[in-house]
Amino acid sequence: MKVSPSLLSADFGNLDRDVEMLNRSSADMIHLDVMDGVFVPNISFGFPVIEAVAKKAKKPLDVHLMIVNPQNYISQVRDCGAAIMNVHQEACVHLHRTVEAIRKEGMKAAVTLNPATPVCLLEDIIADLDMVLLMSVNPGFGGQKFIGNTVAKIRRLRDLIDRCGSHAEIEVDGGVNAETAPLLAEAGADILVAGSYVFNAEDPLGAISCLKAV
């Protein structure tokens, strides 16, 4: 299992320390949630923080834009050093155009679905995606309770990917811990995003290794 720890739960007063910890860990990438207070009811951080993380990080940056009009910021995300740019289906009127623009800038293209958004809406674009992120909580805040229906939703997405011959990986974000991770893995998830479970743990490195072993 691949693991993408979410910096949203890191200690921003000791961000260098936490990024260095992730560099030493078995994590596969670093997840960064950009929130604008419009698309989601919270504000997190912007491009200066991503740039600062990129200077220290030795893992690929998995940048998740929880914002309106994400297509306006593709070049800025690229310039910050992101390997993956993740946009919400709900925030993109012209999703195919946005995905093509992301890939043209040399990044992997990912699309996120909120809990109430059905996977069938990606049927005509799934072959063009490198990743689909399923939110297993409502986006905007860390530490929320896992939405159980996500397990069945992963299975539906896996079926869509297989039927369409897509190479897209399935990422899951929200309420990921030692109890939910095996359920997600069995359903077909490829990547687990974990914030509170990692950064609130007495042994963050061990918590990441636990998820990797699922």
Can you put this structure into words, describing what you see?
The protein is α/β, with parallel strands linked by helices. Helices cover 33% and strands 19% of the residues. The chain has helices at 15-24, 47-56, 74-79, 95-104, 150-164, 181-187, 196-199, 204-212; strands spanning 2-5, 30-35, 61-66, 84-88, 108-113, 131-135, 169-173, 191-194. An 8-stranded parallel beta sheet has the order 1-8-7-6-5-4-3-2. β7 (169-173), α6 and β8 (191-194) form a beta-alpha-beta unit. The longest helix is centred in the C-terminal third of the chain and has 15 residues, at 150-164. The model has no long low-confidence stretch (mean pLDDT 96).
